[in-house]
Automatic annotation (TrEMBL):
This is PPIase cyclophilin-type domain-containing protein. Keywords: Thylakoid. Pfam families: CYP38_PsbQ-like, Pro_isomerase. InterPro entries: Cyclophilin-like_dom_sf, Cyclophilin-type_PPIase_dom, CYP37-like, CYP38_PsbQ-like, PsbQ-like_dom_sf. Residues 241-397 form the PPIase cyclophilin-type domain. The keyword Thylakoid applies. GO terms for molecular function: peptidyl-prolyl cis-trans isomerase activity. The keyword Methyltransferase does not apply.
Length: 420
């Protein structure tokens, strides 16, 4: 089994692509890649990466904040003002297709995250105004917020809504922390309030908010919501992992949340493979800024999923189309997050993802554009993020093995195509 990184080697871009000897998608022939060829590619990458870092090292001096959509369709890659999510939790929260009132509450609270980063005297007055605005919306729009929740979940929604307003980790507690002008308390209370906002938003979004193309519905599995996959990773050389704050262990656990709201076909195909045990025993390989699974020549389904990317501000994904980040297009699920999970490209066409091969992206702002955006942003089907075990990712080496992969949450949201 041969696979390789297939880069369009330039200072601005590389590609993560799966290669096998199977011709299961298109008739285009791709020659088998030898170990010598892989070594040449990796040597060339090593010679390129320092130049990239040197050309963009000024980005480390510029602020990269949590998120706000670009104000205009400028050259995002080269704009120091670009702001994107920097954790999987923030990206996943913003991807929930929730009620407009809840999104306004979320945006208002996330502004406080930005204000807390100001190194001089904190603008507590502005923060207080933000929380009061969020409280007013939560109270005044209660009926419309709860009306967006399915009948069977309304009781739970009412409890969460009350917790958002009056609970120990809710808006009233956040408001009191701001009045005390204790930045640490504000940070903790804000995180708790945003978690509650996300919980309420998820209750509002039990399924997809758009219709998939009929030909895809008939052909591919789909995930109509969120799922959680747990990997057990084992060292290939018999050494151990060292979790932060824990004891050394032979195996380590990584959890990822996969998002069917923005990538239903990609997440659905991945979830189905996990349930089928396709990744149990798969080997991992470390390449430039990524940990990539083997290409599963003997485990794929004989087809490739179309490239699937949801652009920010849009209501449904684009298929077989990349985004032009230079023109201001950014995805709802950005690649430029440490621990992002995406599918590799199909070996014959970048309009399709590999049917099997995925990778963890090890984002490094030193190798990104001036706006903190990866040079490969908008080019891959990102379908989830590492939420537990991010400290394990840098410890993974080539030859380590996925001992097991399990879909621990979300089986009820996986919809399989009807057999013809």
């Amino acid at each position: 089994m041969a696979f390789a990184l297939s880069p369009s080697l330039s200072l601005a871009r590389n590609r993560i692509t799966c290669f096998s000897n199977n011709r299961h998608v298109t008739p285009a022939k791709v020659p088998a890649t030898s170990a010598t060829a892989v070594e040449k590619v990796m040597k060339r990458l090593r010679s390129v990466v320092p130049i990239v870092i040197a050309s963009v090292q000024i980005s480390a001096l510029l602020p990269v904040l949590d998120y706000v959509a670009p104000s205009h369709a400028g050259a995002v890659l080269y704009s120091p003002d670009t702001k994107v999510p920097r954790t999987g939790e923030v990206a996943l929260r913003r991807a929930i297709p929730a009620n407009a009132s809840m999104k306004t509450i979320q945006d208002t609270l996330e502004d406080i995250s930005y204000l807390l980063r100001i190194p001089q005297r904190k603008p507590y007055g502005t923060m207080e105004g933000n929380v009061k605005k969020a409280l007013k919306i939560a109270v005044d729009e209660k009926d419309s917020i709860l009306a967006s929740i399915p009948a069977e979940l309304k009781e739970r929604g009412s409890v969460v809504h009350t917790s958002l307003i009056e609970g120990k980790g809710g808006l009233q507690t956040l408001l009191q922390s701001i009045k005390e002008q204790d930045a640490d308390k504000v940070s903790v209370s804000l995180a708790s309030s945003l978690d509650t906002v996300a919980e309420l938003e998820l209750l509002q979004a039990p399924g997809l908010s758009f219709l998939l193309p009929e030909q895809y519905v008939q052909q591919y599995p789909r995930l109509s919501g969120r799922g959680t996959v747990e990997f057990t990773i084992e060292k290939g050389d018999g050494s151990t992992f060292s979790p932060v704050g824990g004891e050394q262990k032979i195996t380590a656990t990584i959890q990822i949340v996969i998002d069917g709201y923005s990538a239903p076909l990609t997440a659905g195909n991945f979830a189905k493979l996990v349930m089928d045990g396709a990744y149990n025993g798969a080997k991992l390989n470390c390449i430039n800024q990524a940990i990539i699974s083997d290409n599963g020549v003997d485990k794929n389904n004989g087809y490739s999923v179309p490239l699937e990317i949801m652009p920010s501000g849009q209501f449904e994904p684009l298929y077989k189309t990349t985004l032009s980040v230079q023109d201001g297009e950014l995805p709802v699920l950005p690649l430029s997050v440490y621990g992002a999970v995406a599918m590799a490209h199909n070996e014959a066409s970048e309009e399709y993802s590999s049917p099997y091969q995925f990778f963890f992206y090890l984002y490094d702002k030193r190798s990104a554009g001036l706006g903190g955006i990866s040079f490969d942003e908008g080019q891959f089907s990102v379908f989830g993020y590492t939420t537990n075990g991010r400290d394990i990712l840098p410890q993974i080496k080539t030859g380590d093995i996925i001992r097991s992969a399990k879909l621990v949450e979300g089986q009820d949201r996986l919809v399989l195509p009807k057999e013809s």
